[in-house]
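Sequence in, structure out. First:
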Amino acid sequence: MELTISKEDYLKAIAEAEAEEGTVIAATIARWLQVSAPAVALALRRLRRDKLVRVERKGRIALTATGRGIADKLRLRHHLVERMLHEILGMEWYKVHDEAERLEHAISQDVEGRLTTMLGASGRCPHGSQIDKSVPELRKMGLQLLWEAAPGARVKIDSMHERDRKLLEYFDGLGIRPGVDVTVMDRNYDGTISLLLDKKATILGEAAARKVWVSLDR
């Protein structure tokens, strides 16, 4: 079996989409990787041939044990590269995801081991995320989306969606970053929410507020 960058990208996308959305079908992968339906169909045929995925009832796509092992390895390398870029090289937190997408395929087993020793295999990435936490697990931990927070609630930014560079830059400009305290002032008629960050009022739309996980600031 030849393991190409394209195959790795598909396997990682399936694992990440599964953790975030639950059920994964071909349309999920197409949206996740921003590729066409025919491209996904061709990739799935190759992945099934190599026994890396299986397609179950109603088109549900699941990773085999081998496929999940490859996906988990790539997710770990992505996590380590993001932390290296931010914690060691000082790169801005909103830039590291795109860089890690490129570098995760190139690092060797030796470099992975050294980064793991230096940074640890767990911990949070610059966006606040933990690679071993799915959406249901975040819910069990008491986290909720910023959009779901009630008016008057004081919350702490826990983590956020990392695959949209422009959105992350927008958040950074507003001061919305992991670890920041935010007060939800009001839910507005136009579908936005009013926030108070460090005594500064700001407005956030629903689409953006659904990309941020928060915990109640007790």
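Second:
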Amino acid sequence: MDRITLDNVLPRVFEGEDLSGSQVWRSSLTFERGRNYVVEAPSGTGKSSLCAFIYGNRRDYQGRISFDGSDIASISPDAWQNLRRTQLAYLPQELDLFPELTAMQNVCLKNDLTGHVSHEQIRAWMTSLGLADRIDFPVGKMSIGQQQRVAIIRAICQPFSFLLIDEPVSHLDERNNALAARIIMTEAERQGAAIIATSVGNRIGITTHVELHL
């Protein structure tokens, strides 16, 4: 997949509102593979909705979203499953980790399906992000910042053309932000992929090609 295009897209909940200052809603916008985007806006303006629309989790929008020119409204459930395994990676704001499972088990739930990286690589990423002593620790007993780092690693344990990350460093300090950004960028560059990151203020420290405002 090389392009994600939004044509006159608007969350239905915003129908009738004045969004003339938005560079995303009610516009023609294309995200291109190999480029990094940051979508910045206050809370409640649709950042999470944007990610959920693109990932196919929600359809409560007006307008058209297409992948390489094909309207996603026509994608079958089986095709969505394949896209999410091979083309679209997603880190939701809610993280969606299993609290009773360890950090390694949470990551391996995805990686064992994709076979994308070795367990040694996963452990190396966790060590780099200061989680060496939490690898076999239940995530439900971790801090939110630690959980966020686990979820970041899980998100990149698959092939992808586009990586959607919704406020990925909201609970990370400057040092861990930089470390996480380096890991994400290295993996995205290795795959020739695009990063679409949302931010409400604490922006991930990736090299940004395009900045957008909702």
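Remark: Residues 174-191 form the longest helix (18 residues).
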